Amino acid sequence: MIHAVAMCLEYHCQLPEAANAAHGGLPEESFRAEIVKIGLEKLGYEIEPIKALDYTAKLLAIANGELDYTVTHWEKNHQAFFERSGGKEKLERVGTIIPQMLQGYQIDKKTANKYNITNIEQLKQPEIAKLFDSDGDGKANLVGCDPGWGCEIIIEHHLKAYGLQDTVEYDRGRYSAIIADTIARYRQGESILYYTWTPYWVGSVLKPNEDVVWLEVTVTDLPEAQGELTVADTSVDGKNLGFPVDLMRIVASKKFLAANPSAKHLLELIEIPPEDMSAESLRIKDGEDSQQDIRRHAQDWVEKNQELFDNWIEEAKKLQ
Fold it and tell me: Which residue, of 138, 208, 234, 305, is most buried by count of CB atoms within 10 Å of its CB?
């Protein structure tokens, strides 16, 4: 629950009646939620522990006035969730908390080089698909993402669009567990095929262009809900990864933003470099994953970026 305290009374701003925040449940999401929380505290807000909800539930709760904001919203990946939850009539995307979010398919570099594999559509060839068979059924095993994340909808679409349903088996479940098994198989010398995104700790363990390579797609083909996206929207460094290059946005209720202009401006200003998120993700993976650890990490990040952070606070205070 966010309550404006004495500072809000001093500046005669409108008190939010019932305001809460949420993230999507991953520890990394809690890290950036804590950074935002520290900023709001500097503006005079008191904030209760932030809830962890799935992506659709968060947006619906914001639209219904049960929550005020979330720090975890993939602008393109979650477009369908955004529209189904009330869209621009009730919700507003604010700022860019993480720029340049990449996602796509990767395979181990050794197999890629040996068989000259560069494109996901090569998996239509049974002899290529069989290289990535981990359960003995002759099909490639593709590690996907958790149900409800949004990326699983794109993966399912790709399997149909690129004609891979007969040769590729989509393994889904708890991503952190499945990817840990995938890394173990890689270390045993097996070929691996998986979906991933950046920034995330996997890229620090399986390094692109050293351990693994991105697979390309021939043409951009995405679910209709993604809108009119082209090859320019899905390409990085001349490679078409098939997924939109995305932005991590903050989504808030329009009512909350209208009543709290200084908080809105702070949400517009906060930005965390992708490399900092990757470093935090690795710390969490290595065991510093308690809520106390993550709060400390957030405080450390603020201290390391104190001048920038203080500038954000001063700019936001001008609207109180």
Answer: 234
Task: Please work out, in degrees rounded to the nearest 5, the angle formed at the alpha carbon of residue 108 by the alpha carbons of 177 and 179.
Answer: 5
For residue 17 the two structure tokens come to 């009646």
Token pair recorded at residue 258? 């209208």
* Cβ atoms 225, 79 nearer than 8 A: yes
Q: Which tokens hold the place of 71? A: 């720090």
CATH superfamily of 101-240: Glycine betaine-binding periplasmic protein; domain 2 (3.40.190.100)
Are 78 and 29 in contact by the 8 Å Cβ rule? The answer is: no
CA 288 to CA 96: how far, in whole Å? 26
pLDDT tens-place string over residues 243-302? 999 999 999 999 999 999 999 999 999 999 999 999 999 999 999 999 999 999 999 999
CATH 3.40.190.10 fits 2-98+248-317, yes or no: yes
**DSSP annotation of 131:** G
Residue 1 banded pLDDT, cuts 50, 70, 90: very low
Where do you find CATH 3.40.190.10 in the chain?
2-98+248-317
CA separation for the pair 144, 206 (Å, rounded): 16
Hey, what are 191's tokens?
């070929």
> Of 230, 228, 190, 225, whose CA–CA distance to 206 is shortest?
190
Q: Name the segment(s) of the chain with CATH classification 3.40.190.100.
A: 101-240
Report the relative pairing of strands 51-52 and 21-23 from DSSP bridges.
parallel
